Amino acid sequence: MKLEDYLKQDAELYPDKVAVVCGDNSLTYSELWQQSVKTAESLPKGEIVVFRATQDIDFMLKYFALHLNGSVAVPVERDLPEKNLQEIVEFLKLCQISPDTADILFTTGTIGKKKGVMISHRAIIGNGENVIEAQGFTQDSAFIITGPLNHIASLSKFVPVLIQGATVIITEGMKNVNDFFDAMDLPFPKFATFLVPSAIRILLQLSEERLRKYASKIDFIETGAAAISESDIKKLCEILPNSRLYNSYASTECGLIATYNFNDGLHLEGCCGRTTSRTKVIITDDGLIACQGKTIMSGYACNFELTQKVLRDNTIYTTDYGHIDENGMLRLHGRADDVINTGGFKVAPTEVEGIALSMPQIADCICVAAPHPVLGTALKLIYVPKCEVTKKEIALYIKGKVESFKVPFYYEQAEKIQRTYNGKLDRKYYKNA
Amino acid sequence: MKQKILNLLENELPTVDWSSQFLFSEMDSLAVTTVLAILSDKFGITLDSEDATPKNFMTIDSLVNLVESKLNAK
Lengths: 433, 74
What we know:
Chain A is of the alpha/beta class. Chain A has 14 helices and 24 strands. Chain A folds into 2 domains: 333 residues, ANL, N-terminal domain (Rossmann fold, 3-Layer(aba) Sandwich), CATH 3.40.50.12780; 93 residues, ANL, C-terminal domain (GMP Synthetase, Chain A, domain 3, 2-Layer Sandwich). The longest helix of chain A has 17 residues. Chain B has one domain: Orthogonal Bundle (Non-ribosomal Peptide Synthetase Peptidyl Carrier Protein, Chain A). Helices cover 59% and strands 0% of the residues of chain B.
């Protein structure tokens, strides 16, 4: 069965049940199905369709409608500059995509080029089944989406909701934390959500007492996409003693691989738990994590060379170091590449450096990771100016060319940038600084 | 007061257009949190999630009003 088959089935089984809520708008399963079918009438059939991931019910209708038409959904960042969106459209025109592809989700590659991850209908369902089984997702759960819907962590949550006939609540994210709490005032018996570690930090920093008041309503919170600190783990367990609190290891390429309820009294940092039943984890001789199973991607769109590098013999080779501990739990150590994870978004420093260097006032620069009290890790641009230039001018220049999460938070002027003997940027020097 | 707040915020969040008539739409969750943290720290007041409303983040003057009302309530 495909996701939309579950939607049709839900509309027959629970026509009047609320399927989705977004602000003042909501749709029952019957309405969601009917409106998806109607939306499909005005959308292309059998094509690859790139569209902005607006955080609303219209997005959901378009997503299902494209699948109903046999089209491939390619949701992209809502604030992606138009020029970049058109580049993706042109890029995909040349593509031969794998049959059964449902979605193409773009993620950051190590050299700054975007990678279009092809995800099949089969992988989508397998991933949803993993979530239901591993995290106890039930029909009376109302799942609050707080992250961008072009990101696998949020988009994939439609699947367990539809398979179980549950409810999804779409919010604008954690900018207005009041919306998050308002969602939990809706008349549903229990709530679940996915929050990146920086969103948890925001809640703990701004709303600790308020969160405590909602403790009995929170069935579970899942986190992942970046490392969560030990102090936040312990604090969250103390505030929500009866909720399940999961730390997951997942990726766009592999789906949900492992998940660990850290509210188990042990509060293990860096632990991602046991693997889900539809995936298998292998640790390579180099200590890197590799994954197999029903949920893995079909490959990168238009990039056979990179696909061969990452996907061989039905196995995805990641750039994450890890090991399986004596209790069979997956433990993460860090990354083998230069990609910087900031607030759950992966950024290739080379992309930021390339843009900064295209600014006439900058002679040299390097983009590095720097500690940040909320994000955990933020981007910092160390730059050598050719002439006078302000932090604001640099930041606005970069903002005009890429998604906002790629704009460095910190700026430092330097007399020179450290390079290795052969002229390459000396990233190790700055990592150890 | 307004100039002091503007200087503080411009330095920390350079991509925000502080002359905007709807600042909230200019910001992401990190920017909102950063504003609350900076103003709490610099003015010795307590700002939490209930203060992070679109109304309080309408303009730079709205933020100045927020700080002044918290200072007066101390």
